[in-house]
Amino acid sequence: MTTIYRDRADAGVALADRLAELTGRPDNTVLGLVRGGVPVAATVAERLAAPLDVLVVRKLGLPRAREVAFGALGPAGVQVLNPELADRLDPEQREEVVRREMAELERRERLYRADRPPLALGGRTAVIVDDGLATGATARAAVAVARRLGARRVVVAVPVGSLAAHEALVREADEVVCPQIPDDFGAVSRYYEDFHEVSDEEVTATLGG
User: Which among 36, 41, 120, 168 is least buried, having the fewest CB atoms inside 10 angstroms?
Assistant: First the structure.
């Protein structure tokens, strides 16, 4: 039976229930993927009694269909490509998208990290949270970033995801928690009553709180 979440906070409650074994462990860091994953992660972090931080990862969208990802970028120089799509692009087209998204990634890093120290995951369990998993490119980049930053264990937690993306993440993360994997996935927004676009202000307020 398909569950429709009221909003991202409601989805966070469902995820936290599935992550209950991590509650109170001193080596956890919950990472919200910007921007939609941050409200979900805030609820997860509160219920697990874990610190909340932010991970900025940018999807690399096809020039004429930006919602379709041919890869993703993350801090620490991480770039993940889907060769089946990336190889279809002219190299100049691909590099233009990379330049544009790198500029936006750097802008968001400056905005969201502000006075926060650099993300440090050495020896920790990184719980990467997003509001859904469509292609999986963004989450794959996030896993790569967490490992490069020294995470001992990487858990990806999402309220809903496509089967293909879930299978790809299972091969790269230590654990993937995804309560719903519908056969006819469609789009993440189908599984929320309230799926408003999360603003920069909402992210910074959540992190500041």
Answer: 120
